[in-house]
Write a structure and sequence with these properties.
about 375 residues, alpha/beta, Peroxisomal Thiolase, Chain A, domain 1, 13 helices, about 35% helix, about 20% strand, acyltransferase, Thiolase_C, Thiolase-like, transferase
Length: about 375
């Protein structure tokens, strides 16, 4: 099987819901990272065969095949196609998988994997609002027969995880505080500078709160009475974009590209859709087993902090070293622009491996429907 390499990785700073990027059209934000990716790698854009873009709420400004409109908005060649995909929060990590699989199959040589989401302009859930507005069921009879009318939501899933693993509010708040502290330290040390393409006057991630404290978190109201969850222990509603260039060995030689990392393993796994957020645990086990690696072989892990119990349970169940998990903070501090997060996390991961000299990196994230992607890469 042919090898697939990541030869470029760039992201915007992650903006807050009402911050500097709120008015940036998603196609223009996508165009920004696509153009920057082409400029940084020096690749001939006409040689790119496809642009695969993750986006969850594909309505309004994010409709009409955002991948294609973003590429064209960047002034790049009309000959390159684009497709927009939705695997919920893992959409642009799945874009990386599809791009790598195209290259590894030998049918493609250069593919862009990307993601965009402006949650300030297109609210979360906008693409299901039609059903709600028109009295239509979101789930069909087959689903209702299997799972009934019970609530299916990320919020309930996170609370169910707290109950299953015994996490209390204080555990979650300590984790959230450390996420902010790690992100602030990384930002101040310039660890993100090389991966960020400033846009809209914003050059740094906007959601980091270096002055937050456990005392401030304790003042917040629980999301529901009797729950452990508050807004402080959940990912932020955010805005951002990321893009990576995936290349074959032939393309690396032909275009004079410099590999950053090699794709080692791609895995998917489903789990209980009611719990929704637990699938990274079994998916990671599958990926490590297929790769012939142990958790101690992984130097850096990026796991999306949708809610604090997700990385807490993952770290506990896998026996991972907490210092290697989200070493520069996660979505609680940096934000979670849904369909863009997978590409942003992979960009963070490969740049951190290069910065620290680590060998193996692993990325995973929980996804709607009780799913998870896992990607293992090796620094080149």
């Amino acid at each position: 099987m042919a090898e697939a390499f990541i030869v470029g990785a760039v992201r915007t700073p992650v903006g807050t819901k009402k911050g500097a990027l709120a008015g940036v059209h998603p196609a223009d934000m996508g165009a920004h990272v696509l153009k920057e990716l082409v400029n940084r790698t020096g690749v001939d854009p006409a040689a790119v065969e496809d642009v695969i873009m993750g986006c969850v709420s594909q309505v309004g400004p994010q409709a009409l095949d955002l991948a294609r409109t973003a590429w064209l908005s960047a002034g790049l060649p009309e000959t390159t196609a684009g497709v927009t995909i939705d695997r919920q929060c893992g959409s642009s990590q799945q874009a990386v998988h599809f791009a790598a699989q195209g290259v590894m199959s030998g049918t493609q040589d250069l593919v862009v994997a990307s993601g965009v989401e402006n949650m300030g302009m297109v609210p979360m859930g906008a693409n299901v609002q039609f059903a709600l507005d028109n009295g239509l069921q979101l789930f069909g009879e087959g689903w209702l027969k299997r799972y009934g009318m019970q609530e299916i939501s990320q919020f309930r899933g996170a609370q169910l995880m707290c109950e299953k693993w015994g996490y209390k509010r204080e555990d979650l708040e300590r984790f959230a505080l450390e996420s902010h502290q790690r992100a602030a330290a990384a930002r101040d040390a310039g660890h993100f500078d090389g991966e960020i393409a400033p846009i809209g006057g914003l050059a740094q991630d906007e959601g980091v709160r270096p002055d937050t404290t456990l005392e401030k978190m304790a003042e917040l109201k629980a999301l529901r009475d009797g729950w452990e969850l508050t807004a402080a222990v959940a990912s932020q509603i955010s805005i951002g974009a990321g893009a990576l260039l995936i290349a074959s060995e032939r393309a690396v030689e032909q275009h004079g590209l410099t590999p950053m990392a090699r794709i080692v393993q791609l895995a998917l796994q489903g789990d209980d859709p009611v719990y929704m957020l637990t699938a990274p645990i079994p998916a990671t086990r599958v990926a490590l087993d297929k790769a012939g690696l142990g958790i101690d072989d992984i130097d850096v892990t990026e796991i999306n902090e949708a809610f604090a119990p997700v990385p807490l349970a993952w770290t506990q169940e896998l026996g991972a070293d907490p210092a290697r998990v989200n070493p520069n903070g996660g979505a609680i501090a940096l934000g979670h622009p849904l369909g863009a997060t997978g590409s942003i996390l992979m960009t963070k991961l490969v740049h951190e491996l290069r910065r620290t000299g680590g060998r193996y990196g692993l990325q995973t994230m929980c996804e709607g429907g009780g799913q998870a992607n896992v990607t293992i890469v090796e620094r080149v």
